TrEMBL record:
Source organism of the structure: Micromonospora phaseoli
Domain Acyl-CoA oxidase/dehydrogenase middle: 130-220
Domain Acyl-CoA dehydrogenase/oxidase C-terminal: 232-379
Coiled coil: none
Acyl-CoA dehydrogenase/oxidase N-terminal domain boundaries: 14-126
InterPro entries membership: Acyl-CoA_Oxase/DH_mid-dom, Acyl-CoA_Oxase/DH_mid-dom_sf, AcylCo_DH-like_C, AcylCo_DH/oxidase_C, AcylCoA_DH/ox_N, AcylCoA_DH/ox_N_sf, AcylCoA_DH/oxidase_NM_dom_sf, Glutaryl-CoA_DH_mitochondrial
UniProt keyword list: FAD, Flavoprotein, Oxidoreductase, Transit peptide
Similarity-based family: Belongs to the acyl-CoA dehydrogenase family.
A Pfam family matched in the record: Acyl-CoA_dh_M
Biological processes per GO annotation: fatty acid beta-oxidation using acyl-CoA dehydrogenase; fatty-acyl-CoA biosynthetic process
Named cofactor requirement(s): FAD
Entry GO MF terms: fatty-acyl-CoA binding; flavin adenine dinucleotide binding; glutaryl-CoA dehydrogenase activity
Protein name: Glutaryl-CoA dehydrogenase
């Protein structure tokens, strides 16, 4: 298979980063690619089994330190996300939500007791986590969340609902964000707590190899120590989203690469009018433009990863990466579909599956419009959110 790397990008990686990438690519080739078309078609995925396998490889919370986490670099984590999403966006979402949202929230804001109880099991894939911020009526505007937590003696009582929550149908624990009399707070909620119910969202046309649910909280009583002591205000969950978006910046490149490699292979072997599709100027122009955008997106992701490893990454910089790389990945998937013609909509090829998945990736953890406003505020010094 011809490489889409036009710029000798591997030379910018360390040997350890290349080795980690190779390990993840192999597990995706062995464990995901042979089955993912069927998972997508049926809307079923062996998430718990995959989580245990990923846990054995150290992929869950891999960029965190201690508590059974691998303590890898941000770039290594990004490369892992790229390879996972080359298999399927839903598989990468399983790892991202587990590590960069649920585990990260506990790791950064939790008490030592919370960390000891949950993080080792989550790192091993023995406990599945989810992250409850989005609500049925409040997606891009989490400041307007309707979920409430009130004190009752020493306890907390939570009520409300969360929507579009990855891993919720099988989660053992969810980090729930709710409004209190003193602002937004986070709570570690075991999913077997009385009053908690999770309903799987079905009939999805995207991310079908990912389990998504709605969580209902009906006067859920929690002890005082369920609150994340370090999480005060809306900045806490937003910082978790920034952490997860970094993985998306890389992951979208994986879906785009898989589409581009598929289109390259197809164009060089499919003959029309007595010559391969790749021999036509219009096809080469499409392939060239897509490869250039992919390489630019990779350089952007690598720069953000290096900034993260240096402790210098800012939220608006992540917005640049999420806006550009997901938008371009979706454009690449759509263009690759045209090269495959009618075969582009067949489940025998991954292109339409990636395109459908990227429609969700374009929306979740900040729509393109939200990231444009974040960047616009950085450029102008004026907030256009209100």
């Amino acid at each position: 298979m011809t490489s889409v790397d036009l710029l000798d990008l591997d030379s910018a990686l360390t040997e350890e980063e290349r080795q980690i990438r190779a390990v993840v690519r192999q597990v995706v080739d062995d464990r995901v690619r042979p089955h993912v078309a069927g998972w997508y078609e049926t809307g079923q995925v062996p998430a718990r089994e995959l989580a245990r396998e990923f846990g054995k490889l150290g992929l869950l919370g891999m960029h965190l330190t201690g508590y059974g986490c691998a303590g890898s670099t941000a770039v290594a984590y990004g490369l892992a996300c790229l390879e996972l999403e080359a298999g399927d966006s839903g598989v990468r979402s399983l790892v991202s939500v587990q590590g960069s949202l649920a585990m990260y929230a506990v790791w950064r804001f939790g008490s030592e007791e919370q960390k000891q109880r949950w993080l080792p099991a989550m790192a091993a894939g023995e406990a599945i986590g989810s992250f409850g911020l989005t609500e049925p009526d409040h997606g891009s505007d989490p400041a307007s969340m309707a979920s409430r937590a009130r004190r009752d003696g020493d306890d907390w009582v939570l009520s409300g609902s969360k929507m579009w929550i990855t891993n919720a149908p099988i989660a053992d624990v969810t980090v729930i964000w709710a409004r209190t009399d003193s602002g937004v707070r986070g709570f570690v909620v075991p999913m077997d707590t009385p009053g908690v119910t999770a309903r799987e969202i079905t009939r999805k046309m995207s991310l079908r190899a990912s389990l998504t649910g709605e969580i209902s909280l009906d006067d859920v009583r929690l002890p005082a120590d369920a609150q994340l002591p370090g999480a005060t205000g809306l900045k806490a969950p937003l910082s978790c989203l920034t952490e997860a978006r970094h993985g998306i910046v890389w992951g979208a490149l994986g879906a785009a690469r898989d589409c581009l490699e598929t289109a390259l292979g197809y164009a060089t072997t499919r003959t029309q009018f007595g010559r391969p599709l790749a021999g036509f100027q219009l096809t080469q122009a499409k392939l060239a433009d897509m490869a250039v955008e992919w390489n630019k997106g990779y350089l952007l992701a690598l720069q953000l990863g290096r900034l993260a490893d240096a402790g210098k990454l800012r939220p608006e910089q992540v917005s640049v990466g999420k806006l550009n790389n997901v938008r371009e990945a979706l454009a690449i998937a759509r263009q690759c579909r045209t090269i495959l013609g009618a075969n582009g909509v067949s489940g025998d090829y991954p292109v339409m599956r990636h395109a459908n998945n990227l429609e969700s990736v374009l929306t979740y953890e900040g729509t393109s419009e939200i990231h444009q406003l974040v960047i616009g505020q950085r450029l102008t010094g004026i907030s256009a959110f209100v």
